[in-house]
Each structure stands twice: as C-alpha cells, then as structure tokens.
Amino acid sequence: MASGLTNPALNGPAFERIPAWVRQKLRPIAIEKIQAVHDFVETECIPRERIMKDQLEHKRWANPPLMHELREKAKARGLFNLFLPNHFPESPGLTNLEYACCAEIMGRVYWAPQTMNCHAPETGNIELLAKYCTPEQKEKWLRPLMEGTASSAYSMTEPDRASSDATQIAIDMKIEGDEVVINGRKLYGNCLWNKELSFYILMGCSDPSNPVKWNRHTTVIVPCDTPGITQVRNLTIMGYDWAPEGHGEYLYENVRVPKSNIILGAGRAFEIAQGRLGPGRIHHCMRLIGQCERAYELALIRCNDPRKKPRGKLIGEFDSNIERVAQMRLELDMLRLVVLNAADTMDLYGNKAGRRVIAQSKIIVPNVVCKIIDECMQIWGGQGLTQHTPLPELWTYSRFVRVADGPDAAHRHQVGREEMKTAQRFIEQYEQYDRAYKKFAEEAGVKYQDFS
Fold first, then answer.
1. What is the pLDDT of residues 97-119, one digit of tens each?
2. pTM over 0.70
3. DSSP assignment of 153-172
C-alpha cells in the first residue's frame, strides 16, 4: 500500500490541509470517506445554500424538503453516522482522527453535517445511547436515530442555576413505581415547534439528599409528545432564531415517562454526561475550523476583487492585509494541529486520558475562530456585516460555541488545575539544578550565588 505521503488518492483539495503525520495514519476506508464527504459538500451542499435558505423562509420550523432529499442521497452513498467511533458495533469504522478530517469538511456549510446525520446534538446523543443503553433501549431509541427516522435533543441547562456547575441542576425527577415524574424548567434543547423532533435526553435531580452530590442526578428519555411539556419561547442566539432546530425555554409540569426510559440507572447522570462530551467537543472544533476556512477563502476573494480598489490598489495589495492573511493562515493551521492531536490522543489512550487536550481544543478553537472571522468581516467592510456573505452567521456560531458544552472559564480551570499538579515535580527539579550548580561552582572555584 502506498504511504500516506505518496498515495495518489491523497492528492487533491480534500486532503491538502491534512498534516503529513495524519495522512500517514489514514486507512483506505478513511481516504474513501474523506473524499466522498468532500465531493458531497462541494457539489451537493455549497451550491444549494441559497436554495436551502429560501425553502426555510417559507416554513421556519420544519426541515426543508431539500434537507430530506440530501439526507437520502448521503445515506445512499454510505455517509451516514461517520462520527461514531470504531469501538462501537454500530460504527461505520472510522477512528476519531479519521472522522475529524471529515468533520472539518462538513463544517464548510452549517447544515451539511445534518445531511449526513453527523450534526450536534445528534452525534453526542447517538454515542451516549450506543455506549450506555440496554439492547432493548437501543432498538427503541438508537436505531431510529441512526436510520434518520427520528431526531433528538439533549436537555441539561436550567434558567435559574449556574449550569457550568452541573451538580446544581435541580429539575425535580421523582421515581414513583414504574414511572418517573418530572417538574421544573429547562433552557436550550431543540425547539418543540419542529415536529420532527422525537425525544429529549434529560438530566434531572432524582435524589437531592444524597450525600454524594455526583450521585444525585438521573438521565431519562422523554418523548416530545409526552403530556405536560410546554415550550415557553424560542431562544434567539445573538439575534438569530436558528430555525428549524432552534433552542427553547421549557416548562415540565407532572411529566410522566416509564421508568424503563432511565439510561444506565438512577443516580448515574454524571457518568453519562462525561462520557458524552469528549468526542462532541472535538466534532464542534473541527467543524469550526471548516467554517473558518470558508471565511478565509471569502477574505482572499475580497482581497483580489478587481472592482474594489481603494486608492487604486487591490485590497490584498496593502501591507496590513497581507500580514492579516498570513496571520490567519498561521492560526488556522495551528488550530487544526491542536484538535487533531486531541482526536489522536483519544484514539490511542481513551477519552478520559484525552481530557486535557480536549479542553485545550474547546478553549482555543472558538476563541481564535471568532477572531479570524472578525478579521475577514473587516476585510469585507460594510458588506461583511450583511447577508451578502455567510460571515455574520459564521461568527455568531463560533461565539456561541464558546459557551456550548461549558464556558471557557470552566475548561481553563480544568487545564490550570491539572497544570498546578505538576508544580511539585518542577520544584524538586529546580532544587536539583541548584544543588548541582553549587557543586560545580565549588569545583570551578567561583562564588555560589543564592537568589532564593
């Protein structure tokens, strides 16, 4: 087999941004899928962006007919559920690293991942169900998601709690006989107004008096048509309603679901939540890099538009913009290395061992992508703030991801806390340096200087 650097199948735009060390790790199945995803996004999705938007304007809270058409095409081409890691029996066979290369390409169009059933929150929910559900639950809930005949949302955040500390989640969840009774409020989770939404995976407090705060919560599947659930309003994000999936504020009033809908067992919600988040954060970050590449391309086009010549020069001929483009390229390539390293770490050592690099990715990628897209908007000038380009929506989504799956501060705290644990090793190391210095100073006949 040709190496990852000489294989002719790796020639072309689908692979040009993939680092050499990653190319060497791509198996034939991954090369095939990456190329197929690239072809699908470039020929089926990008040319239809305005058609999708036009169909959505006619019916805001339903998936446009074009989405259903493209999902059928993607499914027929074997591009469904590519994200599910290869240690699951339901997986199509890609590693986290291999799928990361696909996710970047999908990110070039906001809704392209949905055409391949690789969109948030579906990816995290499918992996959760595959990892923690019983065979009976998988048949009832997982199979329809993977076949694309159902859709789901994850419901965790609450309006009157600091949800970055999930131990504060307080929606009341009482287990009574063969039922779970739910009362309280939730934020986010996809809109009930879209009738194609099938069920919520909901985290609630079932044992508030448990002395171990990590064992107080339970995760349960709640079908969207269960009596007692009310959507109070749509939550706009930075002014966008994000139809047709959207977000909402919800009221649960004596909502009753079968006890058999509990996932893994009562009191095990935190185990489930941590198992869900790692891969999903990597998917978010790679999609962000894909959308940022799109913004970067638009900036290059604007820089070389012959119709735009302030003071008789192309926008790209000004030294400040040449340096801007260089800095964007450097930062984009840096981000890709950070996230691919996290994906590779997860493949080699598992999600738990990859927590630190996953957190690094989640902190740095949305921040830098926000900054790069902002620069691209600046290059475009006034038009960069309007619907003439996708730049405002790209920027808004990247800003949103700085909060989704946990705010920056929570991830920085995790990384910083882990780093602080390494301090003692360095203290001892530098004490050893000093002892050696003192010895060498005596041997050399020079004065030992103590700066402690």
1. 999 999 999 999 999 999 999 99
2. yes
3. EEE---TTS-TTSGGG---E
